Amino acid sequence: MDFETIEYDAIDGVATITFNRPNSLNAFNDQMIAETIVALKETARDPAVRCIVLTGRGRAFSAGQDLKDVEAREQKISFGEHLRQGYNKLVLQIVQIEKPVIAAVNGVAAGAGCGIALAADIRIASHKASFIQAFSKVGLIPDSGSTWTLPRLVGYARAFEMAVTAKRVSAETALSWGLVNDVVPDEQLMEVVAAWSRSLAAGPALAIGLTKRAMHKAIGMSLPEALLYESQLQDIAGRTQDFNEGVRSFLEKRDPEFKG
Ligand code: LHQ
Question: Which of 62, 143, 242, 254 is the most exposed place for a label (fewest CB within 10 A)?
Fold first, then answer.
């Protein structure tokens, strides 16, 4: 696929989308939003893709909306429409795709860039990474799903603090708050992420996808509803070849070979 603002590759079951506007810290202009949406559509369409990695070229994950681009427009845009046509779609793609999404947070993730990292299922951070809910610094409210994801990840008090102070949260603090799954030395980031993504891609793809669906649904459910939904999805998972293989491999004391 021909992209200018992102790089896309899909190898051995793992699709990697790399934000590639390093001179502006991978800030999102319209083209980068559109290209990321197309790339995510491709990850959903391609059955060979079993895990998705999002990362950034250079020293940033993404600095969020390209503010120079917003400022330079002759015709002012409706921010609501901009969100509905762009970031909202992108965040929903990440959350609704029934494949695991890993954010390899290589540097600063600010504004909508932070929101996109938070929408992923797993965040592995370089020790150089940081998270900034930069919105309030420019007089805006958190968007790109941050009002939904952030309180769920770190609790209301820390989420509100991040939102109204726009303070930079270091990778170490993010780890202690449960905002990221792991922090690794910068030079090892992509190696560690490759180990995660290979392992997820070799997992029982349908069960992993249903796990993601069930957890997101359960957030809005009562316990009886969640228990019922789990039992319905378990019926589906229990009828797969991967379940049979999982049990057989356990009994035969060997590693499972899941086919998804
Ligand atoms: C940038 C940006 C940037 C353009 C760095 N844009 N160039 C949704 C709906 C509609 C509209 C509005 O927004 C939204 C959602 C949002 O995302 S709002 C929040 C937008 N993002 C921000 O407010 C973050 C702005 N950036 C920063 O605060 C800093 O750049 C951070 C803290 C990310 C990094 O600081 P430094 O490491 O000191 O780098 P720097 O500031 O020197 O930036 C390096 C270059 O990148 C620089 O360009 P230059 O030509 O001067 O070298 C910056 O202008 C450019 N850049 N962020 N968002």
Answer: 254
Ligand 1 pocket member 169 (CB < 6 A): no
What's the domain range around 234? 205-251
For residue 153, what pLDDT is reported? 97
Q: Are residues 179 and 58 in the same domain?
A: yes
How many structural domains compose the chain?
2
For the stretch 89-100, pLDDT in tens is 999 999 999 999
Verify whether ligand 1 is closer than 6 Å to residue 138 (CB atom).
yes
Q: Are 91 and 53 in contact (CB under 8 A)?
A: no
Q: Which residues contact 209 (CB under 8 A, 6 or more apart)?
A: 98, 99
Cα–Cα distance measured from residue 112 to residue 25, given in angstroms and rounded to the nearest whole number: 12
Q: Ligand 1 centre and the CA of 63: distance in Å?
A: 5
The predicted model scores a pTM of 0.97
Ranges in the chain, pLDDT < 50? none
Strand order in the sheet with 122-126: 6-11, 14-19, 51-56, 101-105, 122-126, 182-184
